[in-house]
Design brief:
By secondary structure, the protein is α/β, with parallel strands linked by helices. Helices cover 45% and strands 12% of the residues. The protein has 14 helices and 9 strands. The protein is globular and about 55 Å long.
Length: 416
């Protein structure tokens, strides 16, 4: 599997892999936040293990396409429970890409049918190559696809829109041919409506988080967003709806129900009445978010691809499904990779004002060029607006919490 040539259609490696074999139970090694953790904890396991799971990472990957073709999207968020990635990627490499590779390689017995990645960054490009090498080495049949993602800057947006729509058509055709499924407009509209409802309910949870800081655990909301990229949408929607209604006081919490279990995970560990904080940058270890609230900081929102930005795409029911998908995903607030810094900063500035944010914590993963480029510009932008910004770098693990504690305490004192 070679590198994609510029201007060519995105490559697809139809690599040999074991046919997915359903299993009756969830492996105990997945108990701490891997593929089926939330599924098992919430009692949503029924029928899940028989589905063909397609792993995905980047928030510009349309779940609508995956669902319409009869597959179950399974968002990878990575794990450090094993270090299998050491055989494929160097240690001084994107820790998120390494964690995602660890997650895929550790899914023994899980019927993961393949992975789709995007040309978002060098980390994902090398993850794509590593997965291809692993599959060839094992001589097992596996679907690996690299979705071409154009830049969305201030110029040539019409061309970028058409290019992404074309990429989505090619992606759909490869999925259809590989898995032997057919595209159904009726099923597409059904999945479009489900995802629209999931995103709306997640935005409602975020609204409750910022309107009632300290009543919802911010790391729990982030954990739930990650789970939303994995769980069956038809079962997730009533669960989210019940949780939102319980939080708003519209209905009592049903004892022993799935909603009660979810609300328990969202329960804050201690009251936090400190400065209102906005989290920006790369997806963080959730233990750091819990530490912030433990120290008294009130996290009122985030701008993570595995957080609030997942909830933002608004897809219209246009005559061309792929053009509508391309427009919906590209026209939301751009991520740092899109090189649309000024547009992002204006958007973040609006959030700071509307959400009454007193400080920003910028989380960066080690070896992440996009974060290093953006942080300096973002810090200078908000310095002019009088908003303090703290740079926090991790290797996507919970290690280093105590070293970070002193810096976070000092930052909260400055912003409080």
């Amino acid at each position: 599997m070679g590198h994609r040539r510029q201007g060519n259609p995105p490559p697809v490696a139809l690599i040999r892999c074991r046919q997915g074999i359903p299993i009756p139970t969830v492996p105990t090694s997945l108990k701490q936040g891997l593929l089926l953790f939330w599924v098992k904890e919430w009692g949503l396991i029924q029928g899940f293990e028989e589905k063909r799971l397609l792993g995905w990472v980047c928030s510009y990957t349309p779940e609508e396409i995956i669902l319409t073709l009869g597959l179950t999207p399974c968002r990878l968020s990575g794990t450090d429970e094993n270090q299998a990635a050491d055989d494929y990627l160097p240690a001084n490499f994107c820790p998120f890409a390494r964690a995602c590779l660890n997650e895929v390689l550790g899914m023994s017995g899980i019927s993961l049918a393949g992975v789709v990645l995007t040309t978002s960054c060098q980390g994902l490009l090398h993850l794509y190559n590593a997965l291809g090498y692993f599959s060839r080495k094992r001589e097992e049949r596996f679907f690996v696809y690299l979705l071409d993602l154009p830049r969305w800057g201030s110029v040539k947006r019409a061309a970028a829109l058409q290019e992404f729509a074309s990429s989505l058509r090619l992606f759909t055709e490869e999925l259809r041919r590989y898995f032997g499924t057919e595209w159904s407009n009726a099923l597409y509209l059904e999945n479009l409506a489900r995802l629209r409802q999931v995103r709306f309910l997640l935005r409602e949870l975020y609204r409750f988080l910022r309107e009632h800081p300290g009543r919802v655990r911010a790391a729990g909301v982030l954990e739930l967003v990650r789970a939303a990229g994995r769980l069956p949408k038809e079962e997730l929607i009533p669960l989210l709806l019940s949780a939102v209604r319980c939080l708003e006081g519209e209905i009592p919490v049903p004892s022993g129900s799935r909603a009660a279990g979810l609300l328990e995970k969202l329960r804050p560990r201690k009251p936090c009445a400190g400065p209102r904080l906005l989290l920006v940058g790369s997806p963080p270890p959730l233990s750091y978010v819990d530490l912030l609230e433990e120290l008294g900081g009130a996290v009122v929102g985030d701008d993570f691809c595995q957080g609030y930005r997942y909830c933002l795409p608004e897809i219209e029911e246009g005559p061309d499904a792929f053009l509508s998908l391309a427009r919906g995903y590209l026209e939301r607030v751009p991520c740092p990779r899109m090189l649309a810094g000024q547009e992002r900063f204006v958007y973040l500035s609006r959030l700071v004002k509307e959400w009454q944010v007193q400080g920003i914590i910028y989380h960066a993963l080690k070896f992440c060029d996009s974060s290093l480029y953006e942080y300096t510009l973002l810090r200078d932008f908000f310095s002019r607006e009088g908003i303090p910004v703290l740079y926090l770098e991790t290797d996507y693990r919970s290690g280093g919490l105590e070293q970070a504690r002193t810096r976070l305490q000092a930052f909260l004192e400055v912003t409080g």
